[in-house]
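Data deposition worksheet. Section B asks for the primary sequence of the deposited chain exactly as it was used as input, without tags or linkers unless they were present during the calculation. Section C holds the resulting structure in token form. Section D is free text for depositor observations; keep each observation to a single sentence. Incomplete worksheets are returned to the depositor.
Section A, Depositor: J.P.
Section B:
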Amino acid sequence: MKKILYLLLFLPFSAYSQEVENGTIFTIEFPNLKENMDFNVIEKKSYQGILDDLKIDSIFLKNKPAENQIIAAFGKGKFGNSVSMILVLKSGLNDNLNYNLEIKVPQNGKFEKTSVSPLFKNVKSTEYWPYDIEKINFFGFKAIPIENLKTLRIEEKIDSACIKHADETIALGEQQFKSFFKSIVLQFEGNDMFKIDKSLEYEKSINSENVSLDHFWSIGEDIYPNKKRYKFGNPLSFRRIECPYFDETVDYFYTKAKRDIKVVDFDWKTFEESNIRANKAAEKDGHLKFIEKYDFLVGALSEILGEPLTIEQENNSGRIDTKWRLTNGINAYLFRFTNYDEIRLFIYKD
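Section C:
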């Protein structure tokens, strides 16, 4: 593992930066990939209106990126009933990419760095911001060659979910979670109701497994107080497998009458088909991966929701807690059990 990380430090990266204005469909091109990661923003096209799902699909269906290009769209976008600033990118490069991005808001005269997710070949990556952005500035593209990534995967795939889901790397899973969680926050922040039908479309699009029970079950009031006493339908549950050892379930609690979502619950357990219990080395590694997963989730949620509350951990409670409470009524409660490997996350709006 250390050898791999050491090699990555010497990979070529771009020294140039390129600005893109709000309301632009554009292509990033790398003219000399064998020599360096220098790039140019080409084929800029301005547009009017909102980037909805149909518009975005049209852009990427009509304009397939070449092996030295990234196709992108930046502007106001619609997710469900919410409108926010979005950047959608799709890379045609064989190598996976890290890059740096700066944003410039109208009230500020200078660019400020923002967090982004890695780019994977032919996988749409979407970044969201809940405020207006005037321009963005790309720089510091760095390639992670496939041969190095494959070497890394071999170490992570031993007795893990990656054996059956080789393309779903840890980095890809983290990217997908951040994009999905951002979309949930935007839905809760929107003026319109967060409808279950939209989430059902999403679960279908990622081919998750419907594991819903045929009866009602509830959440404890210590997690979700349900102050307005909503009457819920039977919760809907969907299963996903994540590298290297995670069996994830997402539950949607929605009102029976209006079918609007009030709570989303995430649950990460051990992927038992990995036979992790029969391999002491893998079992120890699996436990460490749950600790790393929790640390990632704390960081990812803090990027999206801000700093968590300062709370005193309960002695001998058997779990570690992290909580967020926003002024707009959004609450998030994340905890990891210390006696066994399981992580839970609840998000709702008062």
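Section D:
The chain has two domains: 2-157, 170-349.
Residues 280-305 form the longest helix (26 residues).
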